[in-house]
């Protein structure tokens, strides 16, 4: 089937099979390998992308279901060579350890900040509850997202 997607503000048209998952389209057809595949079952959040403003596990979405959608992947976070505030704070707070889960955390956090500029700590924790970090980086990740939200809300 023929699909058209808008990924990181660029339009892509492609022929995909009915079984092609969104993650495969992103990684293999578009070569955007920042999106990681962990569990392949919607449990780990490593593959999270933003689809029409919502964080979704791209391993659980078929490319055909995403036809016509606006997608943001981790590659779409930085603008004009400058890291997104979330990426900067992840680095500053030491929230990137293995790094494998980081793209998913960043995208869940970005989706949160797109709809809620001043999230509470519990809202931050709820937004990333679908993302797994196995190396005890969780607290630093929450702190990094909180710092990014505060800095952006204050316009610093
Ligand atoms: S790879 Fe998609 S949720 Fe784990
Ligand atoms: S930083 Fe990736 S699993 Fe914790």
Terminus-to-terminus distance? 46 Å
**Can you count the beta strands?**
5
- Radius of gyration, in Å, reads 15 Å
Biggest sheet: strands, sense, closure? 5 strands, mixed
Average pLDDT rating = 95
Keywords: 2Fe-2S, Iron, Iron-sulfur, Metal-binding, Oxidoreductase
Protein name: (2Fe-2S)-binding protein
Organism: Peptoniphilus equinus
InterPro entries: 2Fe-2S-bd, 2Fe-2S-bd_dom_sf, 2Fe-2S_ferredoxin-like_sf, 2Fe-2S_ferredoxin-type, 2Fe2S_fd_BS, Beta-grasp_dom_sf, Diverse_Oxidoreductases
What does this structure look like?
The protein has 156 residues and is of the alpha+beta class. 35% of the residues lie in helices and 15% in strands. It has five helices and five strands. The chain is globular and about 45 Å long. The termini are far apart. 41% of the residues are buried. The mean pLDDT is 95. The protein binds FE2/S2 (inorganic) cluster (2 copies). Residues 37-40, 42-47, 57, 59 line the site of one FE2/S2 (inorganic) cluster.
